[in-house]
Every structure is written in C-alpha cells, then in structure tokens.
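Supplementary notes for students who missed Thursday's class. We covered one full example, reproduced here. Read the sequence, then the structure, then the short commentary at the end.
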Amino acid sequence: MATTPTPKQNQNWLPYFLARFPQFRAFFEGGQAEADARTTFGDDLYSLIRDLATNPNKYDFTSDEGVQAFDTLVMATSYYQTVDGKRKAFDAMTAGDKQANIEKTRVELAAAYGDYYLTVKELDSLATDLARSGLDGKARQYYVAQRIGTRKRGRDDLLFTSEASEIQKIARQYNYKPQDLNDQIISAVTGTVYAPTGSILTADSIREKAKRIAKAGYYHLSEQIDSGLTLDEIFEPYREIAARTLERSPEQISLDDPLYSAALTPVDNRQMSLGEWARMVRSDSRYGYQYTTAANQAATNLGLAIARAFGGYK
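Structure (token representation):
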C-alpha cells in the first residue's frame, strides 16, 4: 500500500472527493447512513474515508501525485477490488450479453426510480454504468442518488429538455395539437407507458401519428406528405406570399391560425394555387390587406387615374 501523502493545509478536499466518488456521500451523513455505509463498503474503505473526513490535511489533492496516491489507497480496498473485478468481467462479455445486462438494469431502474421522471438518455446512461460496475443494494442507491439528486423531476423540467423540444418541433411541423401532447412527450422522453395506448411512445411514433392526422385533415396533400414533406414545408410558400402581401413578418403567419391554414384547404378537391391564395389574401377583408401601405398607395393611384380620365387632374 502507498505511503500516506504529505499533509497540505487549507484544502477544499470534500467537494473534490464527492465529485470523484459521489456514491460515498453517506459516510458524512451520520447515524444509520454511516452504519449502512460500513456494511456496504467494508471496514477498510470506511476507515479510510472517515480518516479523510476527520484528518483532511493528511491528504494532498493539490497535485497530480497526491491525487494518484489517494486513488491508490482507494483501489487497495476490498470494495474497490470487488467493483473493479465486476467491471472487468462485464468488459469481457459478448456484445449481446452486455446489452442484455444493461437492459435488465434499465428495467430495474425504471421500476425503482420512475417517480424521478428520468429521461431516456439519463436512464440509459445510468443503466450502462451500473451494469458495468455491478453496484446493487445500498451502493446502487448511493450512486443513483448522487447522479440524479434527491429532487423529483417535474413535468415542466422534462418539457424543456432538448429531447422534448425536438418532439415539439415535430408537432409544429405537422400542426399536430392533441390535448394530451405533453403526456405523449413525457412518455417519449422518460420511456414510460402512455396510458391511452399502453405502449411507450418515441419521437418516431409521434411523428407517424402526426402525419396520419395531417393526411386525414388534408387528404389532398397525402402524396406530398408521404414523399417526406411536412405540412409546414408545404405551407411555406403560402406563408411568404401572405407575409409579403400583408407587410408582416413570416413569424406572424402561422398554421395555428385558421385564417392562414385556409391556404391548405382543398379547392375542388385539389390544392389551392399560389395565385388563388394571393387573390384571396388581397380580397378578403379579414386579412387586413386594405390597411397596408401598398393597398393605400394602390387606392391613391386609382383615384388619380380616374380623376385624370375625367379631366380632374392636371
């Protein structure tokens, strides 16, 4: 075993240690948590960590040599040797056995920590790490608690994740707006069952459902949707015409507004032409073309032309 590292004064050792070995936080919590820690991690590691807690200046975390010396002390414990052996055994498995082990751990984690609303990415990462280390029981609890914290993930947290944002983008692309869209997103990002179907949704399954709904509402656009176009992409040239004609920004022209989604409604069982749409936007007073600068200028020009025709303007 390595010799005790040279003492250093005024070291902020605890944050470093907990960042490096978060599963050992229970050693510093007192009471039953410490009793459980001794049982879980063994007397040698427990004694080392308690010595660190009570005599922090004996240990050097300010140099690479000091860090390596402490790591050597940890690696010499029976607990570390057990975990390291499990990691080596996992690494020697076939790819299929590894995946089966990870999937088994994933199912266990989903059942044990479902109320934390773990995302699929978080669950997969935890399952892989735990399957490889072989941590179970209290050791697993310690590790999971430090990886995800003790606060339960709220729905709002999940709906602002990058995974949720991608699905929300898919929904907008197809103007897909079911009342329980957020429930569907939660199922996809957490890997939990969506009650109405009894299945776990994914971004792809939500996309396919959005496409089916879009084709049902705009049957005349089915061929274009099947070819890979989204409703938003089909709507884009109509948006540009409306924005330019009404002197608005494209962001103000949305499929969410029935006034503009009318551009995609069928005309004699066919898609409305861009020319027909442009005329509709200019002639229907609900769009407000009459208030634009172009419309006012056109009215002025028409008035001047009439006046000139009748000799009223020189």
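Commentary. The first strand starts at residue 193 and ends at 194. Residues 13-85 form one domain. If anything here is unclear, bring it to office hours.
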